[in-house]
Write a structure and sequence with these properties.
The structure is a single chain. By secondary structure, this protein is α/β, with parallel strands linked by helices. The chain has two domains: 31 residues, no CATH class; 298 residues, Aldolase class I (TIM Barrel), CATH 3.20.20. It has twelve helices and twelve strands. Helix 8 packs across helix 9. The radius of gyration is 21 Å and the shape is globular. The chain binds ligand PBG.
Length: 336
């Protein structure tokens, strides 16, 4: 607000900003943003092996085996969380330089999609289009002679997307940052008869240090050769994010995502204001680890930081938030 507008509204002592904060009910009336269960997408790690394995760097998060997945999703369905995102930890023996397991219609992801859809037909399923869980070097694309190959990678991402759609995936989320992949995936999905499968593009995805715990969770960190700076964005750049979003929208993205979340809320706001399209944000593994580590020390109050951190996304303009805290946040919202 410009200074003259503030003056036009008056000033102390006739104006006292604290009046609207006196009672809980007034605060509720004047609240500008609200977090709803409808805003949440829950990322879930899955594995081939039975049982569940805790992810060390993400206290409270487990990788779930096929025998545990359906039960574990029950509370999310009961709480009416709209969608989950599935992330696989695959047997290292199945990882290859071309990530071919990504297109196997019977791979871990496709099996999980079918099982979840059979148990919970109304729960939305989001799946990445990217090779990192399947690639022996931990990269999102095919690596040859030290370079990530753009167009060759797109081809395999298209097949991965169609395989996932065929299994019942509702939303394909290209998280690879290859140029031109959204348009190619759209055409591949349409060509295979999946016009209604949506694309949630990781449009502004940064080469961030906050993905560390995720890479541990899906088992891609040990192998990761180098970094992802030749395809993910430089954290120094903001205007470039708007170009990325514009291109993905032109290629047919239905929703766009900014990632990471909390350190990039300026980008969320800019994307929402510029395009006015469904704008999602990913509160990534490192953000979760930071908050939970401080909570474990007794330095932060869990319930309050969970809700405040998610509300911040709404204030920045996010329509939905991918968060590992989805379940506890939804339970808290329901409890009022
Ligand atoms: C893979 C992918 C990553 C995340 C989601 N999809 C990691 C990466 O790009 O290295 C990170 C999510 C998180 O940190 O929670 N393309």
């Amino acid at each position: 607000m410009a200074q003259h507008e503030t003056e036009a509204l008056g000033a102390y002592p006739s104006v006292r900003m604290r009046r609207n904060r006196v009672d809980a009910w007034t605060r509720r009336l004047v609240a500008e943003n609200r977090l709803s269960v409808d805003d949440l997408i829950w990322p879930v790690f899955i594995q081939d092996a039975k049982g569940a394995v805790p992810v060390e760097s993400m206290p409270g998060v487990e990788r779930l085996g096929p025998d545990r997945l359906i039960d574990a999703l029950g509370p999310a369905v009961d709480l009416k969380i709209p969608a989950i995102a599935l992330f696989p930890f695959i047997d290292p023996a199945l990882k290859t330089p071309d990530g071919a397991e990504a297109v196997n219609p019977d791979n871990l992801v496709c099996q999980a999609i079918r099982a979840v859809k059979a148990a919970y037909p109304d729960l939305g399923i989001v799946c990445d289009a990217a090779l990192d869980p399947f690639n022996s070097q931990g990269h999102d694309g095919i690596l040859r002679d030290g370079k990530i190959l753009n167009d060759e990678t797109i081809e395999i991402l298209c097949r991965q997307s169609v395989a996932q759609a065929q299994a019942g995936c509702d939303i394909i989320a290209p998280s690879d940052m290859m140029d031109g992949r959204v348009g190619a995936i759209r055409a591949a999905l349409d060509g295979a008869g999946y016009q209604d499968v949506r694309i949630l593009s990781y449009a502004a995805k940064y080469a961030s240090a906050f993905y560390g715990p995720f890479r541990e969770a899906i088992g891609s960190s040990a192998a990761l050769a180098g970094d992802k700076k030749t395809y993910q964005m430089d954290p120094a750049n903001a205007r470039e994010a708007l170009r990325e979003v514009a291109l993905d929208l032109a290629e047919g993205a239905d929703m766009v995502m900014v990632k990471p979340g909390m350190p990039y809320l300026d980008i969320v706001r800019a994307v929402k204001d510029t395009f006015g399209v469904p704008t999602f944000a990913y509160q990534v593994s490192g953000e979760y680890a930071m908050l939970k580590a401080a909570v474990a020390q007794g330095w932060l109050d869990n319930d309050r930081v969970v809700m405040e951190s998610l509300l911040a996304f709404k204030r920045a303009g996010a329509d939905a938030i991918l968060t590992y805290m989805a379940l506890e946040a939804a339970a808290r919202i329901k409890a009022g």
